Amino acid sequence: MKAFVTGGAGFIGSHLVDQLLKNGHSVTVYDNLSSGEKQFIHHNMQRTDFTFIKADLLDLKRVKKEIPGHDIIFHLAANPHVRLGEKQTDLDINQGIVATYNVLEAMRQNSIKKIVFSSSSVVYGETAEPSLPETYGPTLPISLYGAGKLGAEGLISAFCGTFDFQTWIYRFANIVGARGTHGVIVDFIEKLKANPHELEILGDGKQCKPYLYVSDCVDGILFGLAQAPEKINLFNLSCDTTTTVARIAEMVTEEMDLKNVSFKYTGGIRGWKGDVPRFQLDAKKINTLGWKATLASDEAVRKAIRDVLYAKL
Ligand code: NAD
């Protein structure tokens, strides 16, 4: 198949691209390199089954020009930083909703009907549920990033209902691993490199979330795509366990071989406004189809710390 991967030069997208190529598909990456990096796709540049287009999804004319001839769209491009919405309130509207509309409209005009979408656990908002199944509702996000994801899911669902599209929407846990450029692990490593005696930890450190290793994430995406035949296939993608932020801080100091680091908590139950401090995703739906994460949350975190520390690509 000919795959068009938006955000294919990013952390998760570039791993997905590697796997698609390995599986014998040809791939076009469409990425503006705003948070992606050329070095993540550099090793594929000479391949005849790989094309890189540096362009922005907000340029609808360009999306319409580049998308024809593809069988399926993997739409991963977005602002990846949940926190940025606090400062720039139109960011997730544009990068989450308008960009998704542009992809869908370009697909519609070119009779391409299959779209895989990278959504997030944040669409559920802050709930009292110990483990969230895909059927949980109402979905009331507390961040603008979450609103962008939910809006994009809504648009995709509407194109399925109105124009007979087919979709695989994945609500990811926190994804970690090699090529990670943001998130708690990268933040702690950077802070400890700057000051190995003290670590500022946002919140009270008790924030507790599932961390899924990036190769498990890519595996899950492709597994669901191959196995789920409905018009709208919605899956949580997560492991069964969680890790606290305080535990991540300990693991990072262990892996950096630092002793007597003083942890300074900024306090409060969440890292920032819009952060959901504790959640677990119920992944039974995709587990029942036959996919399961190979690494538990702590194992994924430990492996990702080593990947980031040793700049594994
Ligand atoms: P990333 O920042 O590494 O990847 C996003 C890519 O999209 C980047 O390469 C960036 O340059 C590109 N991009 C952004 N805006 C664009 C635009 N307007 N036009 C073209 N390209 C654009 O982030 P990631 O962590 O790999 O995330 C990939 C997707 O998965 C995102 O949609 C993100 O919201 C979602 N997601 C990630 C996580 C996680 O823990 N990393 C969790 C849930 C959902």
Q: What letter string, H or E per element, gives the SSE order?
A: EHEEHEHEHEEHEEEHEEHEHH
Q: Biggest β-sheet: count, sense, barrel?
A: 7 strands, parallel
Beta-strand percentage? 15-25%
Number of strands: 13
- CATH top-level class of the largest domain: Alpha Beta
Distinct bound molecules: nicotinamide-adenine-dinucleotide
Question: What's the end-to-end separation, in Å?
Answer: 26 Å
* CATH fold title of the largest domain: Rossmann fold
**What is the oligomer described by this structure?**
single chain
State the helical fraction.
25-40%
Low-confidence stretches: none
User: Can you tell me the overall shape?
Assistant: globular
Number of domains: 2
Please state the average pLDDT score.
Answer: 97
Radius of gyration: 19 Å
The CATH architecture of the largest domain can be named as 3-Layer(aba) Sandwich
User: Which class do the helix and strand fractions yield?
Assistant: alpha/beta
- The total of helices stands at 9
Name of the CATH superfamily of the largest domain: NAD(P)-binding Rossmann-like Domain
Secondary-structure map with pairings?
Elements: E1 2-6, H1 11-22, E2 26-31, E3 50-54, H2 60-66, E4 72-75, H3 91-109, E5 114-120, H4 144-163, E6 166-172, E7 174-176, H5 184-194, E8 198-201, E9 208-209, E10 211-213, H6 214-227, E11 232-237, E12 243-244, H7 245-255, E13 262-265, H8 284-289, H9 297-309
Parallel strand pairs: 1-2, 1-4, 2-3, 4-5, 5-6, 6-11, 7-10, 8-13
Antiparallel strand pairs: 9-12
Helix pairs in contact: 1-6, 2-3, 3-4, 5-7, 7-9
Bound molecules: nicotinamide-adenine-dinucleotide (NAD).
